[in-house]
Amino acid sequence: MSRKAGYTHTAETKERMKISSARSVAVRKGEPLSTDHRKKLSDAHIRNGDRPPTGYMHENPNWKGGISYKISVRLTLERDDYTCQICWLRDPDVMEVDHRLCRALRPDLFQDLNNLWTLCANCHKRKTKNDWVEIRKARAKTL
Ligand SMILES: [Zn+2]
What we know:
Number of domains: 2
Order of helices and strands: HHHEEH
Number of strands: 2
Number of helices: 4
Shape: elongated
Helix content: 40-55%
Mean pLDDT: 82
Oligomer: single chain
Bound molecules: zinc ion
Strand content: 5-15%
């Protein structure tokens, strides 16, 4: 806190500052909120219909699993020797890694090497199209 040289607060001001800081003790920066305060915030969120934050890690469709996913991709490509598992085309430049059971339906198998396979761009496109049929079916069921 910066303070002008030669300046002192009056006793009255000091007293007011004491009360003010005691009241805002829970919102002081850098200090964890009290359980009571957290509960109140939580209640307010529920009251307002706010939803908990989503998009955490694999819940976000853009999440690629970080560095470990890249390793899984490389391991899959090497295991399948850069060969498309549907049409057996071998070309390291066009190979892509796909989820046999697509991510939308089985996010838990996201990084399972047994659920990853190598496909060429064409087969991947076709397979993804089929996946969407499955996804729509599954979603229609749950709605
Ligand atoms: Zn193919």
